[in-house]
Amino acid sequence: MKKRAFFLDRDGVLNHSIAHRGRQRPPNKPDELRFIDGVGPAIRRLNRLGFYVFVVTNQGGVGLGYMSLSDLDQIHAKLVDHVQRSGGVIHQIKVCTHKPKADCECRKPKPGMLLELAAEYDLDLSESYMVGDRSIDIEAGKRAGTKTIFIGSEVEAPPDVDLVSPSLAQAVEVLFGFEKQS
Ligand SMILES: [Mg+2]
Ligand SMILES: [Zn+2]
Description:
Number of helices: 6
Order of helices and strands: EEEHEHHEHEHEEH
CATH superfamily: HAD superfamily/HAD-like
CATH topology: Rossmann fold
Largest sheet: 6 strands, parallel
Strand content: 15-25%
Strand order of the largest sheet: 5-4-1-6-7-8
Structural class: alpha/beta
Bound molecules: magnesium ion, zinc ion
Radius of gyration: 15 Å
């Protein structure tokens, strides 16, 4: 049987973005990383439900020179470790490091990263979920053929999203119920 997956956007879903000159930017250094509450247990829960968990993130700052690959690797090592402390597993992190205008096949809203993972892990995309806090995430999920979850408010949400939730942790509870304490 094909496996199901959760594809998670990173900034605004797993960690907080950083306010910068009236806009939001991703953390560029490991020290700037602040995790959103409940992501570790939510990912552990998804693992137990039989989902692969992947991170799919645009980090054009690498291509533009705001962030080094070594800082990006350290940020992701910290993320994996944080989730592991709650007993959760991130199976792979896919990053588009190309410049935003490079017109690559991986940068969301293109579905390239999701499609590559689907081929590598033999995933059933129609039973998988893309989770993100921007319309480009939702579009990437739709183009890949997944269900979609928007993290944010109803007002900001794209019209055709399957679920809107303030956090990954709450989305997992809405979809699968509260976890029984064992
Ligand atoms: Mg985001
Ligand atoms: Zn790319």
